[in-house]
Amino acid sequence: MKIFPAVHYSMGGLWVDYVKNAEQGFEGGDPGNQRTNIPNLYAIGECDYQYHGANRLGANSLLSCIFSGLFLAPCLQTLLNSVLRCRGGARREPLSSAVKDHEGAASALLSRIGGENPYLVHQELGM
Predict the structure, then answer these.
(1) Which of 101-116 are b and which e, b meaning 16 or more Cβ less than 10 Å from the residue's Cβ?
(2) Could you tell me the pLDDT band of residue 107, with boundaries at 50, 70 and 90?
(3) 110-to-9, 40, 41, 63 alpha-carbon distances in Å
(4) Mean per-residue pLDDT for 2-20?
(5) pTM for this one?
(6) CA distance 33 to 55
(7) How far apart are the first and last CA of the chain?
(8) Helices H, strands E: what count in the chain?
(9) What's the pLDDT tens digit per position in 20-49?
């Protein structure tokens, strides 16, 4: 894939907060991480401020976006668990059903066997 400057490199993103920890830097699992100034609105991936402008360096932004999703997942799980506890766990069954559906879809994708050579496809797309 050929990488070159484009108009979106000058765009901004949504500003987010992080909860600091004196020992580790970030407080992992805290729902305050990557939250915008709008309650319970989180910026993940390309809409996050740190992946635009001078901070965006081609393939590095993909890795950073993946990291933000992996970092934020436990934070959202903490938030959702606290909401469920406040509501007496009444919504736990639909959540479990949705998790099972997504796990099934991910398993189906990972178990696919195809005849395409991904390296050849990559070369053809880069021409």
Answers:
(1) eeeeeeeeeeeeeeee
(2) very high
(3) 33, 31, 30, 20
(4) 68
(5) 0.50
(6) 19
(7) 8
(8) 3, 2
(9) 888 877 778 888 888 888 888 888 777 776
Span 62-93, pLDDT tens digits: 677 777 778 888 888 888 888 777 666 555 56
Q: Which amino acid is at 115?
A: G
If you ran DSSP here, which 8-state letter would residue 38 be given?
A: S
Query: How is residue 68 written in tokens?
Result: 């933000």
How far is Cα 10 from Cα 28, in angstroms, rounded to an integer? Answer: 30
| Nearest-angstrom CA–CA distance, 43 and 35 | 7
Residues 6+ apart with CB under 8 A from 2: 126
State the CB neighbour count (10 A cutoff) for residue 10: 11
Q: Which of 63, 80, 64, 78 has its CA nearest to residue 16? A: 64
